[in-house]
């Protein structure tokens, strides 16, 4: 047993990481699906989209041969509408509320149609938006993730000059660094960032990390307003013995490595245990399998009834051949010569329901041992609490507190996305960015005389 | 099992489905394939002086992903030599003696030409003649087709020429490119035609290529008005058929119904409004001759369910149900009812009523699903909500009479009953 890279041939990698939701192969195929749409009024799909994309309208625009209009309808509500079409958990959002479900018919493939309508616009950089004349105002955005990009685009459209400070070498945030490659490729994320900045008025400064190479005080000083879209990033520790052994890795880092270094360069074990069952756990488990791990076991301390990931995500893991161990809580990681060899788990059972209504897992007193050579921790991410508190930002367990206008306790400093909500979907971050831009425009006294969507 | 056999002026066919005079019936190869597939008869593509057709010839209107909802052609009458057509007709009659063989004719504009053509066609053993007074393109410029059918007196004259010579039943095919088909229908009946058929195609432009700006179909950068047909024209054809069935003169002769017939239901509707047989074209041009199977099976099953043993038992049965507006019962009132257990909350009924009707549907906001309910006192019973609803039987129209007695508009006025005050 060993953790090694380069387990597969180039063809195998290509196949394992190919698009999990392939696009429509032709315009005709898209039209057949688009023509199923009933064009609902006050449509449930639109109401279920955090960014309120006018779904019936963009689908109708596919059927009327108005591709530019269709792309504009999507991207004017959600500038990351291309990426969202690939990564959104649509089964619990737009597609989950499609009225066809109520007829026991398959819902409209909204995500697939949205991808059809946006992909060309993004890769070919259609000039769908035009900036208003410059208002001679400068805003700094920290973090080129979905929230920051969305905020920057909305501000720039209104004639504000935006500078984004990004600690990595590429934009996109979790889209670029934290999502399974078979959902969205780093290549597409880069194109999406380029499309967003092609509007003009947005400069991204890379390798600029808040609290290290750039300080909040300086930004406050140099700009008319600051927007913090710094996300979350620190992997939650398990606080069990053996966590420092070689072969224990956090899921965020594991996925980051895949996306930064490529598939052949990313090492993976023969027998891998993944701890947790959120979206990130699924992405780590499935990709470990697709990198060539022989056995992948997902360890979750509750049951299928309580899973945080969607059923669709769980199905991907199952189809990939990942094993699921329910009611198993990690107790200790054992090793030899500094390398992981075993994961000891406590056998749990469900007890009383907690405040959220979920039944709490309690110990049975029994334990069992998994023979593994790699443990991937996906027990959630924590906010950058130190950084946030250190900058005198009001927060709750590291999550930045904002008021109804989107403002933090610091005048002229706004925040949104995962760093405020603790970690939700990309589409939630996009909406947070829009809300932040609106608040900043109001703050800059810009809001009178021109509307955000004017 | 219902008896589908038809008898049109003594022209017998095992079922009432004939192929209309058109490209599918322009040669022996197609017609034999149609007969083998089970078609009851054909009207052979119009014979006359040989012409030359152009390329392209067809265009269509698609609707929400459905191809050829409406179909348009600029093809003329047969472009094949007359002697070959006649030889092939005779061969088809010989091979399938139980099928109806009607031949469409459009002679040059003289008595002699008509007589000559009729004699040649009758020698083939064909069972009937159909006079093409309806072709709306190409031939009209030469004083033929619709140019004849649009002028009742010319139509009557030509029919009289034909009747002097013909010894087999003569059907006159009417053009719909008139404000009413009744004057030309009456004229040709008075001129002696044995039967009628309608409709021929409707003059049209199906659309324009928005890249080249050339209307369809494109013939070297130009186009002409074409003849429109297919499912889109069915309602117009049904109305025209009904005016013939209700007229005391034209109703004396049988009618072969034509216009967008694609299914057995379409056929049943044409026959309920007075057609003795029906003719099909666009549907086979889209799907091939194989649709005859369901055309027969569907009609037969429906007849069995309704207890009709023969076609005659239901032909014309709906004609008297079309009345004058003044005779409608004003006391009859219906209101919409939404079955909430079937509602899928699409909101289509609401927005249709709110934007374009009588604002009689209430919206109770929900996330993501709104609840919609009818305000009965404001509902005029127009049917719109029921028509737009994607769920069958979710919205039903429930009778709520305004009074027990029958009151029509004349009586309503006579009594001075109140009109709307809003």
From TrEMBL, chain A:
Gene3D superfamilies assigned: Alpha-helical ferredoxin (1.10.1060.10), FAD/NAD(P)-binding domain (3.50.50.60)
Signal peptide as annotated in the record: none
InterPro entries (alphabetical): 4Fe4S_Fe-S-bd, DPD_II, FAD/NAD-bd_sf, FAD/NAD-binding_dom, Helical_ferredxn
One annotated GO molecular function: oxidoreductase activity
Domain (4Fe-4S ferredoxin-type) ranges: 28-58
Pfam families to which the protein is assigned, alphabetical: Fer4_20, Pyr_redox_2
SUPFAM superfamilies: alpha-helical ferredoxin, Nucleotide-binding domain
Annotated PANTHER family: GLUTAMATE SYNTHASE [NADPH] SMALL CHAIN, GLUTAMATE SYNTHASE [NADPH] SMALL CHAIN-RELATED
Protein name: NAD(P)-dependent oxidoreductase
Species annotation: Larkinella knui
Lineage, highest ranks first: Bacteria, Pseudomonadati, Bacteroidota, Cytophagia, Cytophagales
TrEMBL record, chain B:
Keywords assigned by UniProt, alphabetized: Iron, Iron-sulfur, Metal-binding, Oxidoreductase
Recorded catalytic activity of this chain's protein: 5,6-dihydrouracil + NAD(+) = uracil + NADH + H(+); 5,6-dihydrothymine + NAD(+) = thymine + NADH + H(+)
UniProt-listed InterPro entries: 4Fe4S_Fe-S-bd (IPR017896), 4Fe4S_Fe_S_CS (IPR017900), Aldolase_TIM (IPR013785), Dihydroorotate_DH_cat (IPR005720)
Keyword Iron-sulfur on entry: yes
GO CC term, one of those recorded: cytoplasm
Entry annotated with the keyword NADP: no
Molecular function in Gene Ontology: dihydropyrimidine dehydrogenase (NAD+) activity; iron-sulfur cluster binding; metal ion binding
Domain 4Fe-4S ferredoxin-type: 334-363, 370-400
EC numbers on record: 1.3.1.1
Family: Belongs to the dihydropyrimidine dehydrogenase family.
Function statement: Involved in pyrimidine base degradation. Catalyzes physiologically the reduction of uracil to 5,6-dihydrouracil (DHU) by using NADH as a specific cosubstrate. It also catalyzes the reverse reaction and the reduction of thymine to 5,6-dihydrothymine (DHT).
NCBIfam families in the cross-refs: PRK08318.1 (NF006183)
Quaternary organization: Heterotetramer of 2 PreA and 2 PreT subunits.
Name by which UniProt lists this protein: dihydrouracil dehydrogenase (NAD(+))
Organism taxonomic ancestry: Bacteria, Pseudomonadati, Bacteroidota, Cytophagia, Cytophagales
Gene name in the database record: preA
